[in-house]
Write a structure and sequence with these properties.
Largest sheet of chain B: 5 strands, mixed
Order of helices and strands of chain B: HHHEEHEEEEEEEEH
Strand order of the largest sheet of chain B: 3-2-1-5-8
Order of helices and strands of chain A: HEHEEEEEEEEEEEEEEEEEE
Number of helices of chain A: 2
Distance between the termini of chain B: 71 Å
Oligomer: heterodimer
CATH topology of the largest domain in chain A: Immunoglobulin-like
Largest interface: A-B, 30 and 26 residues
CATH class of the largest domain in chain A: Mainly Beta
Radius of gyration of chain B: 26 Å
Strand content of chain A: 35-45%
Number of domains of chain A: 2
Number of helices of chain B: 5
Chain lengths: 247, 267
C-alpha cells in the first residue's frame, strides 16, 4: 500500500514537472500590448528581365478557348510598372519567436491549363486542397526532395486531392500532361510571410521586438536576406533589389 | 452445328472483305509527294493478304460444312504425314508471303527514309517529351543554337535547353508547339526525344517515325496540300500518351514567312 502511494506521488510529480517544462518551451513569450512592429517595402529589379512570353496551348484546344484574346504569359519572372517584381516570397527566415500552426485550408486550382495561384505559400502540415476545374485531365507532380515526391492524375470532375507538406521546402510543381504548367509550393515554418503582387509591395506585421532576418525569394533570381531589428511598435522600411538578366 | 459454323465463317469473311473493298475505314487522302508509293505498296499488301484471307477462310468454311458433323463409324481423315508436316508447310507458306512483302515493301520504305534530303530543305528541329511536341526554327541567322539538356526548363519555355546567354546562335531560335511548313517545299525534320520513346505520325503525310532518346533521327518529306493536320504520338509513352499531339499547318510560302515573322516577335 505504501509502495503504491509513493509510485502515484512520483508519477504526479514527474508528469507535473514535464508539463511545466513543456509549457515553458512551447509557449510564445508574452507580447507586450502595442509593441508589435512591422516590416514593409518593395521588391524591384535592375537590368533587363526575361520577356514574359505568351504560352501556346494548341494541343489543349479547351485551354486555348478559355484564354481566347489574352494568352497566358510565362510566370517565372513577372514584372510590374516601376520595375517591380511579382510572385516574390518575403518571409522571416531567422528570429521568428514562434508561430502558431496554420490550420486553414489552402486551395490550389488547375484552371485553363494554369496553376492558380502560381506560387502557393503554406506552413508545415497546413491542409492543402487541389482542384481540377478543367474539362480534361491534369497530372499534378510536385518535385519534392525533402518531402515525399508524388504525382497524381486528376481527371475532369474528380474530387479534390487533400494533402499537406510536412517539411519546410520550396517545391517546384509541374503537370505531367501539360509541360508549360508550372508552379511552386513554398512551405515555410513562420507565419510572418508575404507574397508580392504586381506592385512588388509586401508587409510583415505583428512582429514582437527582436532581431530578424528577412529573406526575399524569387524563383529565377534566387534569395536575398537583410537583418532587421524591431524595437517597438515601429515600421521598418526594407527594400529588395534583384539583378535581372534577359536569359 | 458444323454447318452453322461454316455459315458464320462465310458471313465474317464477306463482311470483313466488304469493309475493305468499300473503303469504310480508309486512310485519309494523301498530301505528300511520296504518299502514292506508300499507298501503292499498301494496296499490294492488302490485295495479296486479302486474297489469301478470303481463300483460306472459305476453304475452312467448306471443310467445316462437309466434315464438321461427326458421324458414327466414319474414319477421321488426317493430313498426310500428320500434324508436323502440316505446321511446317503452313509456316513456310506464310513465311514466304511475309518475306516477299518485306522485300518489295523495303524498297519503297528505303526510297523514302534512306535517301538523302533535298539540299534546299527547310530544316526544323523537333523535340518530343512527355507529353508534347516542340518545333524549332533557326531564326534570322539560319543557324540552330546548341542543345544543353541541363538547361531544359519548362517554366521559362526553354524546351530545347538553349543557352542564349552564351550562345548567340540560340538567341533568335524560334520555338513553337505547332509545326508550320510551306506547301510544296521539301522539309527536313531532326527528331530528338527528351525522355522516352515517342513517335511522329501524320496519316495524311504517310509519315510515321519513332523518336529514340539519344538518337538524332532525320526525316524528310514534302507536303502538297495546304491545311491543318494532326500529329499524334503512336508509341505508348506514359500516362498522358493519349493526349500527346500537335498540329502541322501546311501553308503557302508567303503566309509561312508571315507566320514565322510573327512567331519570332513573340520569342
Amino acid at each position: 500500500m505504501r509502495t503504491h502511494s509513493i509510485a502515484v506521488l512520483a508519477t504526479v510529480l514527474i508528469t507535473g514537472g514535464l508539463a511545466r517544462s513543456a509549457s515553458i518551451v512551447g509557449a510564445a513569450p508574452p507580447r507586450p500590448p502595442g509593441a508589435a512592429g512591422t516590416i514593409s517595402g518593395k521588391v524591384t529589379y535592375t537590368g533587363t528581365p526575361p520577356k514574359m512570353k505568351p504560352i501556346d496551348m494548341a494541343k489543349e484546344p479547351n485551354c486555348v478557348t478559355q484564354h481566347a484574346g489574352a494568352p497566358v504569359l510565362t510566370e517565372n519572372v513577372v514584372t510590374g510598372p516601376g520595375n517591380t517584381l511579382r510572385w516574390v516570397l518575403v518571409y522571416i527566415s531567422a528570429g521568428d519567436q514562434g508561430s502558431a500552426p496554420a490550420t486553414e485550408t489552402v486551395r490550389l486550382d488547375q484552371k485553363g491549363c494554369q496553376y492558380i495561384p502560381h506560387v502557393l505559400v503554406l506552413q508545415p502540415n497546413q491542409p492543402l486542397d487541389i482542384y481540377n476545374d478543367d474539362p480534361h485531365s491534369h497530372n499534378i507532380h510536385p518535385l519534392a526532395k525533402l518531402n515525399p515526391e508524388w504525382n497524381r492524375s486528376q481527371p475532369a470532375g474528380a474530387p479534390p486531392i487533400h494533402t499537406k507538406w510536412e517539411q519546410p521546402e520550396f517545391i517546384p510543381v509541374k503537370c505531367n500532361v501539360h509541360p508549360w504548367m508550372h508552379g511552386w509550393h513554398l512551405v515555410v515554418t513562420t507565419s510572418h510571410y508575404a507574397l508580392t503582387g504586381e506592385d512588388g509591395a509586401f508587409t510583415l506585421s505583428g512582429l514582437p521586438p527582436g532581431k530578424y532576418t528577412v529573406t526575399a525569394w524569387q524563383e529565377q533570381f534566387g534569395a536575398q536576406s537583410q537583418d532587421v531589428t524591431i524595437s517597438g511598435s515601429e515600421t521598418k522600411p526594407v527594400n529588395f533589389v534583384f539583378k535581372a538578366t534577359p536569359y | 452445328m458444323g454447318k452453322l459454323f461454316a455459315v458464320v465463317l462465310t458471313i465474317i469473311t464477306v463482311v470483313a472483305t466488304a469493309i475493305f473493298v468499300m473503303r469504310v475505314w480508309w486512310l485519309p487522302a494523301d498530301i505528300s509527294v511520296h504518299g502514292p508509293w506508300i499507298d501503292h505498296q499498301l494496296m499490294e499488301t492488302m490485295l495479296s493478304s486479302g486474297i489469301l484471307f478470303v481463300v483460306s477462310q472459305l476453304a475452312l468454311a467448306l471443310f467445316v460444312w462437309k466434315s464438321g458433323d461427326r458421324r458414327e463409324g466414319r474414319k477421321i481423315k488426317i493430313f498426310p504425314g500428320g500434324a508436323v508436316p502440316m505446321v511446317v508447310l503452313a509456316t513456310v507458306l506464310v513465311g514466304a508471303e511475309i518475306l516477299a512483302l518485306t522485300f518489295v515493301g523495303s524498297k519503297v520504305w528505303a526510297s523514302i527514309y534512306q535517301t538523302p534530303p533535298d539540299p534546299n530543305s527547310l530544316a526544323i528541329d523537333v523535340q518530343a517529351e512527355q507529353f508534347a511536341f516542340y518545333f524549332r526554327y533557326p531564326g534570322a541567322d539560319g543557324k540552330f543554337g546548341g542543345i544543353h539538356p541541363e538547361l531544359m526548363n519548362e517554366a521559362s519555355q526553354n524546351f530545347f535547353g538553349l543557352d542564349p546567354a552564351h550562345d548567340t546562335a540560340a538567341r533568335d531560335d524560334i520555338v513553337v508547339p505547332t509545326l508550320a511548313i510551306p506547301v510544296n517545299r521539301p522539309v527536313l525534320l531532326t527528331l530528338r526525344a527528351k525522355d522516352v520513346n515517342h513517335a511522329f505520325y501524320v496519316p495524311e503525310l504517310r509519315i510515321q517515325q519513332d523518336f529514340v532518346p539519344g538518337l538524332v533521327i532525320p526525316l524528310h518529306f514534302t507536303a502538297t496540300q495546304p491545311g491543318k493536320y494532326e500529329i499524334v504520338c503512336t508509341q505508348l509513352c506514359g500516362l498522358g500518351h493519349y493526349n500527346m499531339r500537335a498540329y502541322v499547318e501546311v501553308m503557302p510560302q508567303e503566309q509561312f514567312d508571315q507566320w514565322l515573322k510573327q512567331q519570332a516577335a513573340q520569342q
